[in-house]
Amino acid sequence: MAKRVARFDSADRVLREDESLFREDFMQKTKGTVLFSGGARVGAFLHDSAHVTASGVFPYSDGKGGIRMEYRPKEEVTSELFLDSLQGVPMTLLHPKNTKTAPGSIIGSVKSRGIVEDNGPEAEVGVRSEVVVYQADAITGTEVRGLSLGFTCDLIIEPGLTPNGVKYDAIQRNLRADHLAVVPNPRVKTARLNLDEDDNEGRPKMPTVRLDSGIEYEAAAEVIHELTTIKGKLTGEAARADAAEAKADTALAEVQKLKTENEQIKKDAEDAAFARAKARLNLESVAASHNVTVKADASDTDIMAAVVKAVRGDSFDLTGKADAYIQAAFDLAVKDAGDTSNGARRTMLKGDSQDAKPDARNDADDKAPSAAKSQAAMLEGLAR
């Protein structure tokens, strides 16, 4: 369960609850010295682009004499509502004790909304703002440069580990800036004013930005933020372009593959058509050699049946026979017709046909089945 609480980024607040005594001790110790002597001044006022807070795990008093580690997540310090809440909040000398004394401690203000400084996925996120100090003479102590953000938040007592493995006892949510105090010991060690005595150019010392060439230049925080944003967008666009190019390459490879497959299918179809045409021509040639008239619309099976009848005689019944049977009958008929033709040629040329030796033929018939009987048996098997 969350409760709304006030928090300060001054490390001294952890152990020192007597604020009035702390203020008195501090003013006595720093009396007579001037902060920002010869510092960055624009007109009558001092200006700076300062780191004001950061994400991370920080120690706070638990109100019972102990310490509670509170986690401030990156998404909270980078939320638009929190960044907007920074603009216009007052700067104070130390944290005001209460609302009655608060106006008297105001020495300046935060001019701009917060600007995120992201140092990478492993590092914590910082927030920078433009500030102006218009009561510089009221600031004493040349060593006092720390900045402590006063803010309200929803505190959720819920222990756990950060993404980087740091243990915490509670989580700060929904941060809203209240004021920015100048303190000697800030909780966020990077939150400091950057005004130096040797900075006498009449302008605040600005942060630097490193270009891709490795050269660093000073630039306003807004410029760095805009440059970082643009570079981030360019990186994203480059990544999307690379992804699109890879996708296009994949699509091109797929198109090429389909083209190759289509060409192979086309070639296979052409080869098959050529084979069928060649087989048809051979079939028609065989039919013509047996004086079978071939009609243009006759099927291969019809032609083969006609050839069988031409060889075997019209009494050879093919009615209702399967295509495989007719094919086999055709092959046997053509073979037998060829054998008969060869035998006739042998008789005319040499006079040694089988008919010239009836006794030998009869003896062979007694010892083994004739070719005609074997063919008839095979056809009978196909018919079944």
Keywords:
384 residues; alpha+beta; 3 domains; 11-stranded mixed beta sheet; two-stranded antiparallel ribbon; rod-shaped
Strand content: 15-25%
Low-confidence stretches: 12-40, 196-204, 343-358, 364-368
Assembly state (oligomeric):
single chain
Sheet with the most strands, sense and barrel status: 11 strands, mixed
Total strands: 15
Distance between the terminal alpha carbons, to the nearest Å?
Answer: 89 Å
Apparent shape = rod-shaped
Number of domains: 3
The proportion of residues forming helix, as a percent range, comes to: 40-55%
The whole-number mean of residue pLDDT values reads: 75
Over the alpha carbons, how many angstroms does the gyration radius reach? 51 Å
- Structural classification: alpha+beta
**N-to-C SSE series?**
EHEEEEHHEEEEEEEEEEHHHHH
Number of helices: 8
Topology:
Elements: E1 2-8, H1 19-29, E2 41-42, E3 45-54, E4 56-61, E5 67-72, H2 74-77, H3 80-86, E6 90-93, E7 106-110, E8 115-118, E9 125-133, E10 146-156, E11 160-161, E12 167-168, E13 170-183, E14 208-210, E15 216-218, H4 221-289, H5 300-312, H6 323-350, H7 358-367, H8 371-383
Parallel strand pairs: 5-13, 6-13
Antiparallel strand pairs: 1-10, 2-3, 3-9, 4-5, 6-7, 7-9, 8-9, 10-13, 11-12, 14-15
Helix pairs in contact: 4-5, 5-6, 6-8
